[in-house]
Amino acid sequence: MSEWWTYTLSDIQSFSLQTWYRLFERYNTAIWPVQIAALALGLAILALLRRPDVRLGRIIAAILGVCWLWIAIAFFAMRYAKLAWVAVYFAWGFGLEAALLLWTGIVRGGLAFERRPAGLGVFLLALVVAPLIGPLLGREWRQVEVFGAAPDPTAVGTLGILLLATGRPRWELIALPAVWCAISGASLAAMNAPAAWIMPAAAVLIVILAAWRPFARRRKNLRKDAR
Question: Residue ranges of the domains in the chain?
């Protein structure tokens, strides 16, 4: 048997792009109308971002945690795993992110969020624009990916929300969504998907913005002290 590290994405992802789209079509049909509830939860997050309050942060963390846990079980473990063995590991990864969000946001009360243009823009892209990208590129509406129900827009949307967290960058929460963006982009590239670059590009942009925040805050404080 060949060593596991010699396997490529083509070895793991042994199905076509159309099979991938068909998976979402069957998934969306099976879970309907969960997509409506997921979009409603996304709008609820927007409404809760009115002020940096730990109590509101707990609710946002709970919503995000439930979405990640749902995808771990309903999408990866129950459906994607029938196509690829690696989906079991993806399910554990999404379950771990759900646990981290719930632990940090609810148990420890360590999350509060404030409105910032960059984070809000990323979240709105995941919530509103992501479902439109597929049909614009030729996918059927039954195959759309919705925030809260599908992994890609949920990962990007979560990264956008984490950009809004007060205090230091939440690298422990950013890591898994960013890794998923890289995995998703590589998998889509292996299937020759036209929009494979979007997920890795989103992750790189968000990581750069998160890393820049402490420097920007420090420069702002230095300017205040100089006055």
Answer: 14-226
